[in-house]
Amino acid sequence: MTMTSRYTLLADIGGTNTRVALAQGAQLVPASIARFPNKGRATLEEIIREYMVAERISDLVGVCVAVAGPVSVDGTHARMTNLDWTIRAEALAEVTGAAHVSLLNDLQAQGHALAGLSPEVLREVQAGEPAPALSPKLVVGVGTGFNAAPVHHAPGGLMVVPASECGHITMPVRSEIHTEVKRYFERKHRFASVEHACAGRGLERIYAFVTGREDATVTGEEILSLMHGKDEDALKAAQIFVTLLGGALGDLALTHLPFGGIYLIGGAARAVEPWLEQMNFKQAFMDKGSFSDYMTKFPIHVVEDDFAALAGCANYIATHKLGLS
């Protein structure tokens, strides 16, 4: 199909895959969604060219890209954290012919998607307490990497989602085994971050620690399979992972007070969700001394929609009237 100037192009770049789609105004076009593996590709532009040729797209008015990494202050470029790519707005404008290109951190895009999430894509982890409709929210990415972004509502219906790189803050420690894991990471990486422990690769790293390996050679999928088979090392690694995740989210909850809810997104979050209750996630989340009871106020959900960031990009570029006049 040949697209007209009514359409914008959207891309959500993770550490492993890139999702691409089209939007008309704030509405994502579901039939246009495509997924591309990043492995073997040198640049995002390769994927965009392939997509545009396959879909016979021309005359785009805007592009919005969600990047799993920090975006420059002036919004002209972004550097992927877990992939050797630099995303440049100028290069995307040249490839697409679009007059306007927006680069967002991927968690910002997820934040802009929250208002449109269907209840059917939410798995409840903690009910929390009722709060005013415009209460702050927090979206947390637990995938190849780890990051989070607060979501605030501004006058006129706009959503304000500040960028963050909180995956690179210090890993929380609340037990002797956490201390041992932290020292293991410090020996290998010189610094033990939340992302080292709580991203999807964190489970792989913790399993390597538990089994006495120097490097993480067992994949997350293999560890999950071992967990279903009641493998003791896999279950121990998952228990450490889940309690570290709970502690990190508790810290973020007290930092941002997201009474409107905490929303966990990403493949690793979805994969461990069935194990959270039995592995003491909520106990770790609420382990905040005199504020432990306070932690029950925050609703927590896992988001099943794998394409929410694309919808967030569409909402952002439409509500900010970027390139759509």
Question: Your description of this structure?
Answer:
With 325 residues, this protein is α/β, with parallel strands linked by helices. It folds into 2 domains: 7-112 and 313-319, ATPase, nucleotide binding domain (Nucleotidyltransferase, domain 5); 121-303, 3-Layer(aba) Sandwich (Hexokinase, domain 1). The chain is 35% helix and 21% strand. The chain is built from 11 helices and 14 strands. Strands 1, 2, 3, 4, 5 and 8 form a 6-stranded mixed sheet that branches. A 6-stranded mixed sheet has the order 9-14-13-10-11-12, sandwiched between helices. Strands 6-7 form a two-stranded antiparallel ribbon. A hairpin with a 5-residue loop joins β11 (146-153) and β12 (159-160). α7 crosses α8 (232-256). The protein is globular. Residues 1-5 have low confidence and may be disordered. Belongs to the bacterial glucokinase family. Keywords: Kinase, Transferase. This is ROK family protein.
CATH class of the largest domain: Alpha Beta
Q: Tally the structural domains.
A: 2
- SSE order in H/E notation? EEEEHEEEHEHEEEEHHHHHEHHEH
Report the β-strand fraction as a percent range: 15-25%
Which structural class do the helices and strands define? alpha/beta
Number of helices, counting only DSSP H or I runs of 4 residues or more: 11
Return Rg in Å.
20 Å
User: What is the count of β-strands?
Assistant: 14
CATH architecture of the largest domain: 3-Layer(aba) Sandwich
Give a concise summary.
This protein has 325 residues and is of the alpha/beta class. The protein contains 11 helices and 14 strands.
Features:
14 strands; 325 residues; 2 domains; Nucleotidyltransferase, domain 5; globular; 6-stranded mixed beta sheet
